[in-house]
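TASK: fixed-backbone design
INPUT:
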């Protein structure tokens, strides 16, 4: 198998692990265990907490002391062990603690995966901005495949989803040790400062006003990234409480309906090179923010019959909303940093989006939904929930358009391939 084929499988397994449980864990939490929405917000905040320090820490280690692919494999071994233990837990507090351990191991591997992919492709003289997006598509396909496996095996409300993720994690751990060596780029340098020794150079990016604003808005938009993953499948499943929808396709195969979002990702990933070179990071990020407004707004008014088209269109728009922010943002950071801090810089981007952003989004959403958008009977008031999220995204989009100044130069994107 060639390098591109090996990286394709690498990306596929990375997101298969996540897709096995991320979309369906709400069904396990509310349906199987009957735990509260306020506590559920804490489950998704574990991704944010781990992203505050682990991507940056592992980036420092990979930049200075240890091959990235070896560190990656060790993290997946430990993360798989945590997922394997989750089904044994019957206390919500302990469950949150164990899943935090799993996320401490898993979340930094996303940034490491990008860094490893960029390094291997550049070492083999590939045009990264053209070659990487089609490879990254297979990560999304892996996520979709895991969702379908979970749904079609009847595992979306059971502990089997965690077993599926754990097995995939162990397989990827073993596979990662066979990948081409990604040696530290900042190893053995003499006369370095304490900041350089600790690998904190990436934080110097905050001295640049444009990059500081980029990271701040990344944090605010990051607060919206996981909201539909947190509640989307439960939202669709809740239509089953209405007699006319109880036996509909949407209820029986809610996870497969949600997978349309990831199928859409595969198409929009392929469009990123064109949009990024043609319009630049500001317009691409702005398109993403507007797409989030539509994503939430269409959910607010959709239903399994006459409004089914709104649900499907919302899922299609998700691909643009997610990819134009996450992957374009990662590529933009790559153009702004020196190769010696590549892993650290990608970890910093991860910290702001899936760290601070995810913590704020999951924690605040859990409180708001539990306090203001839950009926006396314990049912969620979905229209108000989705409209609130849509308004939030619209405010972020307007502020980003006003305050983030960036003059697009297509030639700058070519820096990625140097």
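OUTPUT:
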């Amino acid at each position: 198998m060639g390098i591109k084929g090996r990286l394709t499988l690498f990306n596929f397994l990375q997101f298969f692990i996540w897709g096995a449980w991320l979309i369906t864990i709400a069904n396990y939490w509310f349906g199987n265990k009957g735990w509260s929405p306020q506590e559920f917000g804490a489950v998704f905040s574990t991704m944010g907490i781990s992203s505050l320090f682990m991507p940056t820490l592992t980036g420092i280690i990979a930049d200075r002391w240890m091959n990235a692919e070896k560190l990656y494999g060790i993290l997946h071994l430990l993360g798989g062990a945590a997922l394997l233990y989750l089904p044994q837990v019957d206390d919500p507090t302990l469950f949150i603690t164990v899943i935090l351990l799993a996320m401490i191991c898993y979340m930094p591997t996303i940034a490491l995966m990008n860094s490893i992919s960029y390094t291997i492709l550049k070492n083999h003289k590939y045009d990264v901005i053209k070659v990487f997006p089609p490879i990254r598509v297979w990560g999304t396909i892996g996520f979709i495949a895991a969702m379908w496996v979970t749904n079609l095996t009847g595992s979306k409300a059971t502990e089997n989803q965690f077993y599926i993720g754990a097995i995939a994690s162990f397989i990827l751990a073993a596979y990662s040790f066979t990948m081409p060596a990604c040696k530290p780029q900042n190893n053995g340098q003499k006369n370095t400062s304490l900041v350089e020794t600790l690998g904190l150079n990436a934080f110097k990016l905050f001295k640049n006003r444009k990059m500081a604003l980029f990271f701040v808005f990344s944090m605010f938009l990051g607060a919206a990234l996981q909201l539909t993953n947190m509640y989307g499948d439960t939202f669709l499943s809740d239509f089953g409480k209405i007699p006319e929808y109880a036996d509909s396709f949407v209820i029986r195969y809610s996870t497969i309906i949600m997978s349309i979002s990831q199928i859409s990702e595969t198409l929009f990933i392929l469009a990123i090179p064109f949009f990024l070179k043609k319009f630049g990071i500001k317009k691409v990020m702005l398109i993403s923010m507007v797409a989030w407004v539509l994503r939430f707004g269409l959910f607010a008014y959709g239903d399994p019959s006459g409004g089914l088209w709104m649900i499907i269109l919302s899922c299609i728009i998700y691909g643009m909303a997610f990819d134009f922010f996450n992957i374009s943002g990662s590529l933009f950071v790559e153009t702004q940093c020196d190769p010696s801090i590549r892993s650290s810089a990608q970890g910093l981007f991860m910290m702001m989006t899936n760290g601070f952003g995810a913590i704020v989004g999951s924690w605040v959403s859990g409180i708001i939904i539990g306090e203001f958008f839950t009926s006396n009977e314990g049912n969620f008031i979905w229209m108000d929930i989705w409209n609130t999220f849509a308004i939030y995204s619209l405010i972020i989009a307007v502020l980003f358009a006003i305050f983030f100044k960036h003059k697009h130069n297509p030639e700058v994107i070519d820096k990625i391939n140097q």
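COMMENT: The radius of gyration is 21 Å.
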